[in-house]
Amino acid sequence: MAQLLDFTIVTYERSPGKWRAAFTPIRPPRNIIAGAVHSLVTPIDYDSEAKAKIAAEKAIKEIRSAEIR
Q1: Do 10 and 63 touch, CB atoms closer than 8 A?
Q2: What are the pLDDT digits (tens) for 4-59?
Q3: d(CA 55, CA 12)
Q4: How would you classify residue 30: left for phi > 0, otherwise alpha for psi between -120 and 50, otherwise beta?
Q5: What is the per-residue burial (b if ≥16 Cβ within 10 Å, else e) of 21-47?
Q6: How far apart are CA 19 and CA 58, in angstroms?
Q7: Per DSSP, which regions of the chain are E strands?
Q8: pLDDT (0 to 100) of residue 25
Q9: In Å, what is the CA distance from 32 to each residue of 17, 18, 25?
Q10: Selected residue with higher pLDDT from 66 and 8
Q11: Residue ranges covered by each domain of the chain
């Protein structure tokens, strides 16, 4: 089950005033496949670093709720 503490979140500025966040599991899954995607990036640009981080946290929570279903 995905928890916020199970992920590393990195924010970055794509261009002045345009922020995104990438998040990666701290411990990759055991069935890892070479060449597979291991991290996700927020889909849109945000006007602040804080908003990008919040968007990444929401995405992690959505992954968790999808796992529960």
Answers
A1: no
A2: 788 999 999 999 999 999 998 887 666 666 666 678 899 999 999 999 999 999 99
A3: 13
A4: alpha
A5: bbbebeeeeeeeeeeeeeebebeeebe
A6: 16
A7: 7-15, 18-25, 40-41
A8: 84
A9: 35, 32, 12
A10: 8
A11: 4-29+38-68
